[in-house]
Amino acid sequence: MKLETQVGIVGAGPAGLILSHLLHLEGIDSVVIESRSRQYVEERVRAGLLEQGTVELLKETGAGARLEREGLTHYGIELRFGGRGHRIDFKELANRSVTIYPQNKVVADLFDIRFAAKGRIFLEAADASVHDFGDAGSRGPKPKIRFVAGGEPHELTCDYIAGCDGFHGICRPSIPEGALTVYDRIYPFGWLGILAEAPPSAEELVYAYHERGFSLLSMRSPTISRLYIQCEPDENIEEWPDERIWRELHARLETTDGWHLTEGPILQKGVTGMRSFVIEPMQYGRMFLAGDAAHIVPPTGAKGLNLAVADVRVMADAFTQFYKSGNQEALDNYSRKCLRRVWKVQRFSWWMTSMLHLFHTDNAFDQRRQLAELDYVTSSRAAAQTLAENYVGLQME
What is the C-alpha separation between 147 and 380, in angstroms, rounded? Predict the structure, then answer.
């Protein structure tokens, strides 16, 4: 089947769906191609913290009704070390907030709003491939996305391709070898994460530095806790029965003031490796990459989803300028503009990670230095303000 659109979007995660929604609001046609089912995409356990800018975008564009009802607004986080907690006050230091709202709900809300607008989304699309996107001009053949849906081969012809298909997607590997520069760092640890049916033990997120390793207390709702502990990147989850996980969390999160960790049935658990990854540029010819297709950040700074949203905001603005005026300047500058933010976010995520985690190569000096840095961040207004400004999200250019 032959199809046509203005922007062909590969990937129906948050980046692809938000881009499709933003383009629709500007009268620009798009088609989304996704290899997985809607249920699979919606049930993936991913990020749960939204920057204020992400929240404002979803609300302003009509995709934030449930977010407004169910999101948990937070005005700070706690850094915990030496058995004591130290609050970083976002409202006072940055006059902004963050919101706890799971990524799977963001995706479900976006699916609802795109289907209500009769948006074209092909789910469970097999054998997808991208073609003819290398020429940035208008003289060559138009880009094409070929895929199989409902057992029938399809060919989607478009003006541009948006690669929003994640780190393991098809778009980035389809760019010719040597056209991209890869910057990569693999961390020597992972996070063992659990979803527990237990009321959160703190009102805000707790980032804990401990001699046994980092831990994080987060939440998904008033009744569901999300908790993490630093572990080996290849940790065998079978060696972590529930009792061992709770015992380790108690040890790493304990305080000297009688604070208590609430336990409950563990609903999910798994191990995630950690890396920092960036490709430059984030565009090639008439293909533009966004989100995890172009960069990965360690989850310590809660930036993955928010950075993807920032990418597609820039991309949607560039497409809007092009289709309304014919001016390609914003499209040509897409990568440069995004990468300026990407590297600032990478810096912050690396800093949070290196400050809070134990490294195998560390010695006693390194650990004392980490404690001194935590002491400085929690006792200096200037240092705390730097953390707050980055955590709540840098302003869009």
Answer: 55
Q: Which CATH number fits domain 2-74+99-183+275-350: 3.40.50.10610, 3.40.50.720, 3.40.50.2000, 3.50.50.60?
A: 3.50.50.60
pLDDT for residue 157: 98
Contacts of 320 (CB under 8 A, 6+ apart): 23, 26, 28
Please list the active-site residues. Answer: 74, 207, 299, 303, 391
- Residue 313 three-state SS: helix
- For 146, phi then psi, to 5°, come to -105, 140
3-state secondary structure of 333: coil
Q: What is the pLDDT of residues 139-153, one digit of tens each?
A: 779 999 999 999 999
Percent of the chain past pLDDT 90, that is, above it, reads 95
- Strand order across the 30-33 sheet: 120-122, 30-33, 7-10, 160-163, 287-289, 283-284
CA dihedral sign, ordered 275, 280, 284, 287: positive
Answer left, alpha or beta for residue 95, where phi above 0 means left and psi between -120 and 50 means alpha: left
| Long-range contacts from 367-376, C-beta under 8 angstroms, 24+ separation | 367/211, 370/209, 371/81, 371/82, 371/209, 374/79, 374/81, 374/86, 374/209
Contact assessment for residue 389 and residue 93, using Cβ atoms and an 8 Å cutoff: yes
Give the pLDDT score at 48. Answer: 86
Alpha-carbon gap, residue 19 to 8, rounded angstroms: 11
Mean pLDDT for the chain overall: 96
Q: What does the domain layout of the chain look like in residue ranges?
A: 2-74+99-183+275-350, 187-274+360-392
The pLDDT-based confidence of 214 (bands split at 50, 70, 90) is: very high
Mean of pLDDT values over 230-258: 96
Pairing of strands 181-196, 30-33: unpaired
Residue pointed to by tokens 């709770």 = 246
Choose the CATH number for 187-274+360-392 among 1.10.150.120, 3.30.9.10, 3.40.190.10, 3.40.50.970: 3.30.9.10
What pTM was estimated for this model as a whole? 0.95
